[in-house]
Amino acid sequence: MKSWSKKIYLELPKPSEEDHRPLQERLTAALEDSGPFRLEEEAAYIRMRPAALQDAQAVCTQGDFRVTATVGFDGRGWELLKLEPGDTTGAHYGLCADLGSTTILMELADLNTGEILGAESIFNPQINWGEDILSRIFYTKDQPEHRKRLQRATAQGFQTLIELLKEKTGVDTFSCPVLIVSGNTAMIHFLLGLDAFGVFQTPYAVQTLAPDICRGEELGIPINGFVYCCPGVENYLGGDIVSGMLATGIPDQEEISVFLDVGTNGELVVGNREFLLAGAGAAGPALEGGVVHTGMRAESGAVDRVETEQGRLKAHVIGEGEAKGICGSGIVDLIAELFLNGWIDLRGKFREEAPEVVRIPGREEEEAELAVEYAPGLYFYQDDIDEFLKTKAAAMTMVEYMMNLIGLTMDDVARFYVAGAFGTHLDKESAVTIGLYPDISRDKIISPGNTSLKGAERLLLDRSLAARAEEIVGRMQYVQFGTVEDFLHLMVAAAAIPHTDLQRYPSVVKRLKEREKNS
Question: How far apart are the first and last CA of the chain?
Answer without folding.
Answer: 59
